[in-house]
Design a protein that fits this description.
With about 525 residues, this protein is of the alpha/beta class. The chain contains 15 helices and 21 strands. It folds into 2 domains: about 280 residues, Aldehyde Dehydrogenase, Chain A, domain 1 (3-Layer(aba) Sandwich), CATH 3.40.605; about 190 residues, Aldehyde Dehydrogenase, Chain A, domain 2 (3-Layer(aba) Sandwich). The model has no long low-confidence stretch (mean pLDDT about 100). Bound molecules: nicotinamide-adenine-dinucleotide and 5-oxo-L-norvaline (A1AUG).
Length: about 525
């Protein structure tokens, strides 16, 4: 087994690669409109109730028609996962690990196809889609190795005592409910699902309603790689309709959620209640929102800072929990940075994600379009609009990359997660004040500091309270195994996805001691 290394990104300026993704787009385009049933116990279940997944770049285009689970089918899914758990938990680790290696290999061979699905269903440009697919591969490659590490080293960490044979092993928890977001609809969904599965759990996967087709295709890939029936139930449906049942069910042992603070808090509170017949404390793993800031010090590489702000603010139209939604800039360099960011932003082209000339695509759906548009109106009341602000909702959900300036630290658009292509500039009179402004939201996910001063970087290392802190680089783009990902406060339980401790959340430790 070779050491883990992150999957290289694809250079689409290379003609061969460009032709490959274009061919994949043609192939996927021809497969649009298919029906996607639920999968319970390995059986396909087609329901009368269904919903369409649409292309946010061309909202008249149906990506697929997806069956919709109701309470009865959610109950069946939990029961199926429960019935399968005993057998799956006994499958040797090397077989569970092999499932992830084989799935990663299948995905690697078909990565442009899956990236094409991401371009059409999630509105990701080729580069953003490729990064999402690469991260899905990385999660599986990394968690497979982590599971081997846990399984082979646990007992060796015990203090040996003469006259005793002591064994320590990581065993699974039970039935997990996996609830991923739509914004990394392959990577985060796959990472959450396969981490739980490789640890020996069985799961009910409720995909995000905006991106169920990519999830369906990933589950099929797991089956192709040899996953037994009943290990993963595929249960698309309204979170509002079946979410509470899944979360509060007595057979649910843990919930792994990635999404908004609002929904995450609801699930966290619900999971704390003990249902009749429940005989464990449910575990909640939650990765929630962010209001991430890039601080630019008076002594900084201003061009690098401006490039990073624009890339982190408008990549995937700002629809990343790690996005730079606040630029906190020292007064000495404020006007210069703002000017440069404005220039760079005006060079961006918003368009259909499958149009290779687009710098960024649409936002995900009507609700997001309306929410971001309302924040833009709020920003016009609170701040100075410097770039963008335009919207175009006729064909798709397009919003111009938007810059606001001169915000007060407690402005609404400086405090609340917008989750769109909007960045707000705020002036700081000192580095200390910049840190105070950066720390003054309820979140704590990512942040960056641009400074050439070692003492200020060290001050930020201690005082900038975020789970992923970057120096002199953008605040998005964590790599699996390199930048374990998760944050503080209302950004969640800091599960550190892609990190050495992540699998621990889906296992429990058993000690067996024998007197010799
Ligand atoms: N911290 C991270 O690692 C991370 C990563 C990606 C996204 N996010 C956050 O996710 C949010 C955007 O994603 P989103 O719009 O999908 O979030 P969301 O909270 O609207 O939905 C997340 C998931 O929860 C489901 N859901 C909705 N209501 C539910 C309910 N009542 N019960 C059970 N499930 C329910 C949705 O169908 C979806 O699958 C942003 O806040 C972003 O910051 C965080
Ligand atoms: N892990 C991703 C963000 C995931 C949330 O949307 C990054 O580091 O940019």
């Amino acid at each position: 087994m070779v050491p883990y290394r992150p999957e290289p990104f694809t250079d689409f300026s290379n003609e061969t690669n460009r032709k490959a993704i274009e061919a994949a787009l043609d192939k996927v385009q021809a497969e649009l409109g298919q029906e996607y049933p639920l999968i319970i116990g390995g059986k396909r279940v087609k329901t009368d109730a269904s919903f369409n997944s649409i292309n946010p770049s061309r909202k008249a285009e149906v990506i697929g028609r997806v069956s919709k689970a109701d309470a009865e089918l959610a109950e069946q899914a939990i029961q199926s996962a429960h019935e399968t758990f005993a057998a799956w938990a006994r499958v040797p680790v090397e077989q569970r690990v092999r499932l992830l290696f084989k799935t990663a290999a299948l995905l690697r061979r078909r990565k442009h196809e899956f990236s094409a699905w991401l371009m059409l269903e999630a509105g990701k440009t080729a580069a953003e889609a490729d990064a999402d697919t690469a991260e899905a591969i990385d999660f599986m490659e990394y968690y497979a190795r982590q599971m081997i590490e846990l399984d082979t080293t646990a007992a060796s960490r015990l203090i040996t005592l003469e006259g005793e044979d002591n064994d320590l092993r990581y065993i699974p928890l039970g039935v997990g409910v996996i609830i991923p977001p739509w914004n990394f609809p392959l990577a985060i969904m796959a990472g959450m699902t396969t981490a739980a599965v490789v640890a020996g759990n069985t799961v009910v996967l409720k995909p995000a309603s905006a991106t169920p087709v990519i999830a369906a295709r990933f589950v099929s890939l797991l089956e192709e790689a040899g996953m037994p029936p009943g290990v993963v139930q595929f249960l698309p449906g309204s979170g509002g309709e079946i979410g509470d049942l899944l979360v509060s069910h007595p057979l649910t042992r843990f919930i792994s959620f990635t999404g908004s603070k609002e929904v995450g808090l609801r699930i966290f509170e619900l999971s704390a209640k003990t249902a009749p017949g429940q005989k464990w404390l449910k575990r909640f793993v939650g990765e929630l929102g962010g209001k991430d800031a890039i601080i630019v010090d008076s002594e900084a590489d201003l061009e690098a800072a401006a490039q990073a702000i624009v890339a982190a603010a408008f990549g995937f139209s700002g629809q990343k929990c790690s996005a730079c939604s606040r630029a906190i800039v020292h007064a000495d360099v404020y006007d210069e940075i703002l000017q440069r960011c404005t220039e760079l932003t005006r060079e961006l082209k918003v368009g259909a994600a499958s149009d290779f000339s687009s710098s960024t695509g649409p936002v995900i759906d009507e609700a997001a379009y309306r929410k971001i548009s309302s924040y833009i109106e709020q920003g016009k009341k609170e701040c100075r609009l410097v770039a963008g602000g335009g919207t175009a909702g006729e064909k798709g959900y397009f919003i111009e990359p938007t810059i606001f300036a001169d915000a007060a630290p407690d402005a609404v658009i400086m405090q609340e997660e917008i989750f769109g292509p909007v960045v707000v500039f705020c002036k700081a009179e000192s580095f200390e004040q910049a840190l105070d402004i950066a720390n003054n939201t309820e979140y704590g996910l990512t942040g960056s500091v641009f400074s050439m001063s070692r003492s200020r970087l060290e001050q930020a290392r201690e005082q900038f309270h975020v789970g992923n802190l970057y120096f002199n680089r953008k605040c998005t783009g964590a790599l699996v195994g390199v930048h374990p990902f998760g944050g503080f406060n209302m950004s969640g339980t800091d599960s550190k996805a892609g990190g050495p401790d992540y699998l621990l959340q889906f296992t429990q430790l058993k000690l067996i001691s024998e007197k010799l």
